[in-house]
Amino acid sequence: MKLELSIYARGLKNVAGFGKGTSDPFAIVTRLSVNENEKPEVIGKTEVVKNNLSPDFVKVFKLEYGLGTPQRIAINLFDEVRKKTNIGMGSAVFDVGELLGARGNTQIKKLKKGGQLAATVRKSEGSGILRLKMRGEKLKNTEGMFGKSDPFFELSRKVASTGGQTWDNVYRSAHIKNNLNPVWDEATVELSVLCGGNLDHPLSITVYDHEKSGKHVLMGHAETSVNGLLQAYKNGAARPMQLSKKGKTTGSLIITKAETEGIMDEPPTAQMAATSISPTAPVMSVPVTTATATGVAVGSAARSFASAPQSTSKQGLFVDYVSGGCELNVCVAIDFTGSNGDPRKAGTLHHMYPGERNSYQKAIAAIVSILLQYDSDKKIPVYGFGAKYNGVVRHCFQCGAFPEADGLKGIMDAYESTFSSGLIMSRPTVFNEVLKTAAAKTDKLFEDALKRGGQSYTILLIVTDGAVSDVNATAECLKEVSSSPMSVVIVGVGNADFRAMQFLDDFAQSSGTRDIAQFVAFNEHSHSSQSLTKATLEEIPEQMVGYFQAREIDPLPPIVRSEDSMSNIDSMEAEEEIDLSLDINEEEIVITGGGDNFINGFDAK
Questions:
Q1: The predicted structure's pLDDT at residue 572
Q2: CA distances to 2, 211, 260, 303 from 267, in Å
Q3: What is the arithmetic mean of pLDDT over 463-472?
Q4: CB neighbours of 88 closer than 8 A, spacing ≥ 6?
């Protein structure tokens, strides 16, 4: 899925030095390595925002993300120092999955050097670019009798949210000194960033008088759209756009060029639309852009997908549902049948090794750690099956002392405590009661969410050491629960013959029911947690979107998170400085050390 990353900061510490004014911050975004075979990669650099300790960067970075493929980015802030070494202002690391799962797709982090840094992601859609050139005419002066304003303009797109309408800056021009009839340089803006590919999407053009202090003065604004700009270009000087401020006209804007290029008329195929593309091979440096003067530049250090085909793909719609607050819930079911072996003996599948996790724990840690990014309360039911209590075989029982475990640690505690609960590992291997129990809980969560005006979807993770005893009965049960808003991920651990389990994976296609099951053999991916999570989770976005679309349930409006309240900071603990060394010069940005502190999903906490 294609995403756009935007950045802003608040209350940064001034590091310019005594008598040297206010810092001029810029940011560098780096994709960190996620395994020992990868190198960190510089994605790009923002523009420099002069004399501003609370900058809103207009530079937007393009990312590729798949649900089962972890991706972490580092954002380093610097004060630009001409002809000398730039001064660090702070840094933070963001997990793209956590950003998607966060309220408003935004996280705000406290910086160790002072201030806050926020990152936001949203779906990227649309193709092509807009080339725009305009001039102002008879702008109202805001400098008083003895000076003239220094006008610049910003382009903003309207963002709909549950809290109302807001404007998101996407382009900022250079300012023209002492001129009430300014002619600005041509602007080139990606349509995916400007309007999401919708040429009628509301836009705002706001003109400011530039001030060295960074406290720019509003001169006027006008609302339009890309199509409105194209029409204004046709109208020419005879019918200029009118700027207004507090209901009064403050000048005119004459569009001298407005052209679109590279818009793809043909949507991609369904197969292309539903496929998540992996990041390209990492490089150690990227060209530096001169975004200070011209805003977003096509072909800049941030990867541009302006010419790539876009559509309302199921991967893209997954982002829409999550952005609208759809809650992803998680349930876990663990196989305690006798075929796992005596857990007290080394070499058996449930044996607990000092300082090392067994296959059950590794599978749970890798998969659940990703899914929990989308589960706001982190409360997870943990079920067991295939064991005897008081001489009776139970095919679905609670693991742990509480109906729901608290986060990944709670799941691990519940799992470990089950072995001291008096169970006797038994047989046969039956999923049906677990499936029905999870489906019933899923249906209730869904109904409760609808009553609140929300949405809900559940992923059931089953970890087992062998094939079910009655494959046909299990297939029929999967068919029965396929009407619930749920996906089922089955991970087989150990060396059993899992061919019958693959039948369950393929059953939906042959039976014509909704596909909700995915089976993966752990041993085929035990070398890499990323390989495991990609294989197990890649179908979930399509399954979730398919469920909602079949019931004509549209995504809710995206939630926009307030940026100003201190209570919005995700952690009151300041972020530790990232171990990443960057050599920044006029031609390129080079990583000279660090950036490889990847996290193995099997060891997730």
A1: 66
A2: 15, 45, 18, 21
A3: 91
A4: 15, 76, 77, 78, 79, 113, 577
Q: Which of 57, 54, 49 is nearest to 11 (CA)?
A: 54
Tell me if 462 sits within 8 A of 434, measured CB to CB.
Answer: yes
CB 151 within 8 A of CB 210: yes
pLDDT of 89 over the 50 cut? yes
Annotate 79-92 with b (16+ C-beta within 10 A) or e (fewer): bbeeeeebbebbbb
User: Two tokens at 116?
Assistant: 């806050």
What does pLDDT average to over the chain? Answer: 87
594, 540: one domain: no
Torsion of CA 178, 180, 186, 189, to 10 degrees: 100
582 and 510 belong to one structural domain: no
Q: The domain that contains 474 carries what CATH number? A: 3.40.50
Domain boundary among 239, 263, 287: 263
CA distance 291 to 60: 11
3 shares a domain with 34: yes
Amino acid residing at 93: V
Structure tokens at 159: 């963002």
Name every residue whose Cβ is closer than 8 Å to that of residue 94 and which is 6 or more positions away in sequence. Answer: 72, 73, 75, 107, 109, 119
User: What is the Cα 412 distance to its own chain's centre?
Assistant: 27
Please check whether residue 485 lies inside any domain of the structure: yes
CATH of the domain at 140: 2.60.40.150
Q: Residue 315 domain-assigned?
A: no
The domain boundary, picked from 263, 278, 295, lies at: 263
Do 8 and 46 fall within a single domain?
A: yes
| pLDDT > 70 in the chain, percent | 88
Residue 283 has what pLDDT?
31
DSSP string, 186-246: PEEEEHHHHHTT-TTS-EEEEEEE--TTS--EEEEEEEE-HHHHHHHHHHGGGSPEEEEET
Residues 29 and 157 in one domain: no
Interval 170-189: pLDDT, tens: 999 999 999 999 999 999 99
In whole angstroms, how far apart are CA 378 and each of 306, 329, 470?
A: 38, 8, 33
CA-wise closest residue to 105 among 9, 204, 7: 7
Q: Which domain holds residue 1?
A: 1-124+558-599
Q: H/E element holding 89?
A: strand 87-95
Do residues 77 and 134 both lie within one domain? no
Q: Tell me how far apart the alpha carbons of residues 242 and 373 are, in angstroms, rounded to a whole number.
A: 46
Alpha-carbon span 561 to 103, nearest angstrom: 7
Residues 456, 338, single domain; the answer is yes
Residues 436 and 453 in one domain: yes
Alpha carbons 45 and 30: distance in angstroms, whole number: 9
